[in-house]
Design goal:
Blueprint (H helix, E strand, L loop, with lengths): L2 H30 L8 E3 L13 E4 L3 E7 L4 E7 L3 E8 L3 E8 L3 E8 H13 L1
Antiparallel strand pairs: 1-2, 2-3, 3-4, 5-6, 6-7
């Protein structure tokens, strides 16, 4: 067999494997970026720091406030009972905002939701 034909065979298989890895990574990013629960889930923008691949999600329920951050393997989820929420501070910038939730244990920060989304979160939280 010709060496150039062998080289083209290896190149074809290498490109096919690289393409399969890219498709797999894209599938994981899309799957992990879906809403983690039903109901009102608010997403951080992908344009903000720390939210490029897997944006942080915040859900406000009648019982708790849940911050969910997907990762390549697993996820980090923090749940605060609504009775432990002492204050909510919103630092609004031109387009994005930072939400600081004050609790009896400290402060939880959710960077990057859009400023209009933050208004909706505050309205839902004040309803409970």
């Amino acid at each position: 067999m010709d060496t150039s034909a062998e080289w083209m065979t290896w190149l074809t298989w290498a490109l096919a494997a690289a393409g399969a890895l890219i498709v797999l990574a894209a599938w994981i990013v899309v799957r992990k970026s879906r809403a983690f629960t039903t109901g009102g889930v608010f997403y951080a923008s992908r344009w903000t720091r720390g939210n490029r691949l897997f944006p942080t999600q915040v859900a406000v329920t009648p019982v708790s406030v849940i911050q969910h951050t997907p990762r390549w393997i697993g996820a980090h989820e923090e749940s605060i009972h609504i009775a432990h929420v002492a204050s909510v501070s919103v630092d609004t910038h031109l387009i994005f905002a930072d939400v600081l939730i004050g609790t009896s244990d400290g402060v939880v920060m959710s960077p990057g939701p859009r400023a209009l989304t933050v208004d909706a979160v505050v309205q839902i939280g004040s309803a409970y």
